[in-house]
Amino acid sequence: MAKIEILYNKKVIDKDIEEYYNALATNIQFSGSHVKKIVISSVKENEGKSTVSINIAKSLAELGKKVLLLDCDLRKSSIVARFRLEGKTDGLTSYLSGITGIENVLHDTDVPNLTILPAGQVPPNPTNLLQNKNFDLMISAFEKYYDYIIVDAPPIGVVIDAAIVAKKCDASILVVESGAIKRKVLKKAKEQLEHSGAEFLGVILNKLDMSAENYGAYGSYGSYGNYGNYGKKK
Fold first, then answer.
1. Domains of the chain listed by start with CATH number
2. Residue 117: which of 95, 136, 133 has the closest Cα?
3. How far apart are CA 65 and CA 75, in angstroms?
4. Is residue 225 predicted with pLDDT exceeding 60?
5. Largest CB tally within 10 Å, which of 18, 36, 50, 59?
6. Which residue, 69, 62, 74, 88, is CA-closest to 4?
7. Measured between alpha carbons, how far is residue 56 from residues 45, 50, 119, 185 in Å?
8. N-to-C CA span, the chain
């Protein structure tokens, strides 16, 4: 474990929003003991997938689970920006490239039980890196040590990376911005995740205006629409 202090970037979180993430974390536990590696993606950029990934990981950790937040958005990561890191930070790309050992890319946070593995420097070949044998070896080792691995993946409607990562995971979740995605595009993204072989756990409708009288084509999803309505989105 790298001896670099990483502090979770605390924000003022609405208590209701915090409860929604706690409910999500609980529902994930009820999905079965076989669900340990969960990839979280979106259809396009800026739908809030990284915010959701961080807070699900944090909620699971606060429930006493040993959690790894794995940043697989090698092209345009925003995970590191949500944490305060001191010193040089190696990440997933350094490990997958064979530049450094796995012990140098794992970083503790000030949230008990929560560890992060940041994406690292943007590589010239992100898709190839995610397909190499080091990734498989890493995942196999981690699932024996952590109760949950939450994987923040790139938007599946933009690049193939999320589908590649999903094949190595047990389940997937899709984060969708309310009113921003057409039904047929959402359906295609869902099918791509399902074709990976990972169990599809469902859609989180994000950035939903709860004051609106109707919630658009997706129908009412209740209070879960409040997810991610604070801080910087991805």
1. 6-226 (3.40.50.300)
2. 95
3. 29
4. no
5. 50
6. 88
7. 19, 10, 18, 25
8. 28
Place of tokens 């993204």: 189
How many percent of the chain have pLDDT more than 90?
39
Token pair 């490239």 is at which residue? 97
Q: How far apart are CA 179 and CA 202, in angstroms?
A: 17
Element (H, E) at 116: strand 114-117
pLDDT band at 222 (very low <50, low <70, confident <90, very high): very low
Q: What is the pTM of this model?
A: 0.81
Helix (H) or strand (E) holding 37: strand 37-42
CA distance 209 to 218: 13
Which helix (H) or strand (E) segment holds residue 143: the answer is: helix 133-145
Q: At CA 93, angle to CA 88 and CA 95, rounded to 5?
A: 85
Token representation of residue 145? 């040590």
Give pLDDT, residue 11.
44
96's enclosing H/E stretch is helix 92-96
Phi and psi for 36 in degrees, rounded to 5? Answer: -120, -35
Cβ atoms 185, 191 nearer than 8 A: no
pLDDT digits (tens, 9 = 90+) for 18-36: 888 888 999 999 988 899 9
